[in-house]
Amino acid sequence: MKRLNIIPNKGVGDIYLGMSQEEVEEILTGEHRTLRKSDIYYSEDYKEHDIIIEYDASGTVVTIELVDVMTDIYDVYFNDIEVFKTKAEDIIEALEKLDECIVEEPDRDLASEYIFQKLGLTFWRSSAFHPKLLDDPEFMEMSESIREDEMKYWYFESIGVSKYI
Fold first, then answer.
1. Can you spell out the DSSP letters for the chain?
2. pLDDT tens digits, one per residue of 139-161
3. 4 with 84: CB under 8 angstroms?
4. Which of 20, 24, 44, 67 has the most CB atoms around it within 10 Å of its CB?
5. What is the pLDDT of residue 35?
């Protein structure tokens, strides 16, 4: 398994914020990708690598997003934390020692998105699981298979690297 390191405010592995699309394509060669455009930016979804690169209007990288399915090929790390195989609350606790965490949910344990602006890191999951849900009668009324499925959200599904201002 290859190790892929997240570098705050800089990039991931050999891909850096500020690179041109041509420079990125030299690293991420492959034909399985899609292009999505808007008036402000465009992004490339490099499906072979499970990575999404967002470019600004001038064509330079502004965001690099890693998707959890890439763990079939890469072990993704920030410092010594393997980010897709470490529980969300453990990651948040470790990163809060380095930067303030922005969460827009009233219950921060059950938030879907966590932003660390100084580090330029965003962690996301489509739903949230925390062990305290095991004490929630509504959660426990769900079928066992649904509860097991919900527990996969104890981990993050994507991580973005950007340069926040």
1. -EEEEEETTTEETTEETT-BHHHHHHHS--S-EEEEE-SSEEEEEETTTTEEEEEETTSBEEEEEEEGGGGGTEEEEETTEETTSS-HHHHHHHHTTTSPPB--SSSGGG-SEEEETTTTEEEE-SS---GGGGG-HHHHTS-HHHHHHHGGGGS-SEEEEE---
2. 788 888 888 878 788 899 999 99
3. no
4. 24
5. 55
